[in-house]
Amino acid sequence: MSTGKRLSPNDPGSYSLPEKVAVTHIDIELDADFENEKLKGFVDLSITKIDESCDHIILDNIDLNVISIKNKDDGTLLDYSIGDRLEVFGSKLEIRIPSIKKSIIRITYETSKTASALQWLTPEQTLGKVHPYLFSQCQPAHARSMLPCQDTPSTKFTYTAKITAPKPLTVLMSAVPLEVIDNGNKRTFLFEQTVPVQSYLIAIAIGNLVSKTLSPISKVWSEPEEIDKAAYEFEQTPELLKTAENVCGPYVWKIYDLLVMPPSFPFGGMENPCLTFVTPTLLAGDRSLVNVVAHEIAHSWTGNLVTNRNFEHFWMNEGFTVYVERRIHGLLYGESSREFAALGGLEDLKQSIDNLGAQNPLTKLVVDLSGIDPDDAFSTCPYEKGHTFLFYLEKLLGAAEFQIFFKSYIDKFKYKSVGTEDFKSYLVSYFGEDSAVSQIDWDLWLYTCGMPPIIPSYDTTDQDACVSLLNRWEQWDGIGNNFKKSDLDQFQTTQIIQFLALVLKSNHFTLSKVKAMQEAYDYNSSGNCEILLRWLRTCVKFKWIEQLELVYKFINTTGRMKYVRPLYRDLYSWEETRSKTIDNYEKNKMSMMYVCRHTVAKDLHLRNC
């Protein structure tokens, strides 16, 4: 969808105008109806007039069944209207509000069975196969399908929640749990979030869940079948959190829990405050993928505490978070390890830009999302191009000085939503216009398509070993048995991943060499999804038809878009497999969450862009 229109002046993807009337607090009371796959109940919105002459509030809404809207104080019904529905952004919900500056409005409603924020799983789709499961994913603009709200990151609010679910299911939310009330065959779970959050950080999960304690403020949650594996994998969480505080300042969210999601969860992680959602693809068995946890922990400051004011400035959430994630990595494992991770990120960025096109305006750091579905704009660019810019600034301004500045930036803008100009102005005022800041070409970095204009100098020690092994394979004439498993004995997992990334982009391989690589290293048996992704993409690139069964099995058992989308695109490009790939998607699409189903359909040219 691309209409070119902005729904409101400050956020192209939200009808709401919090600069006129702002929601400052929400009380949520909902019942989870698994039989009909709906949430039913009400929300109380505490509102404050910024413009005291304004007589209405505008909320975002996708397919909510609004039953009534009233003034909570006196029970008076309030007039409201629901505007025309746009395919992606839903409808404007306009409510006539009381004349006083502050009031509370109660909206009684239920969600649609097709709510894009909610994934209802049958027992068969869970690990335990006995109980159903519900989880949400509201970022970037799906909270409006779960509750009527100002669905823009430009405004924040506190919230409480009372969620009722059938026994023996447990309810978790992006808030601090307070109490559980027994109601016979149901239980009601009470939560409180006292730190102001934006709408996309409201999160819920309901399932047969158990926990193990990692520290006084951290637990890991999952279905019982994988709790031991999860507790082992994420044992380092308290150390990561402590290191993040050294980088960013005090942790304000009271608790930090992890929830291992069902396989259909579309992201590596989601930084819901107090309760990070993580993909089960992180359970590699060797703790090699906990960088994703470091990333989500970093979001506790960059993204959650200091927030992009709309998704045109998404790099301020994600580029900053990758920067903090790698700072954590460097403090724990050494600076060379941090910089090697940055080199791997650059490879991912090159692939993303090759896929999008070097002149695609969505490869800029600051983008124009007028009329564009933010799900369609999602890519590696804000993450890795954003990180590259911040690393460049660190090198330019001095590591020690920039790191002190970075912590002060978070302190200055905590609890606020900001744009790129806020960061630029603060950095210039902090260092002074006569400093090395004068060398920064802001327009070149922020508003130019393609790869970053300057690639900083990185430590290549770990990369050199990968390149050396790649060169051996590229120069091999195919005669003799020159390679064996011990080639990888000195490699860290991250180096194996990077080696395969280099293989994938190499033009000096043949199918026979790829088959020889499987014989030597047996990548088919890897339990690490990052390795499998690059390996299976290589197999598809060189049209190894016997590997297709393994490729389809991989994309049908994970809903993580990082893995599913590149492989579907690769399979679509292989003409002989295109029809079978589309059939595979049609057969399995309803096990995907909305955002994955929606974007893969675009990748397979099954919907208009």
UniProtKB/TrEMBL annotation:
The keyword Lipid metabolism does not apply. Gene3D superfamilies: 3.30.2010.30, Neutral Protease Domain 2, Peptidase M1, leukotriene A4 hydrolase/aminopeptidase C-terminal domain, tricorn interacting facor f3 domain. One of its GO terms (biological process) is peptide catabolic process. PANTHER family: LEUKOTRIENE A-4 HYDROLASE. It comes from Aphis craccivora. Residues 461-604 form the Peptidase M1 leukotriene A4 hydrolase/aminopeptidase C-terminal domain. The keyword Calcium does not apply. This is Leukotriene A-4 hydrolase. It is a lipid-anchor; GPI-anchor. GO terms for cellular component: cytosol; plasma membrane; side of membrane. Belongs to the peptidase M1 family.
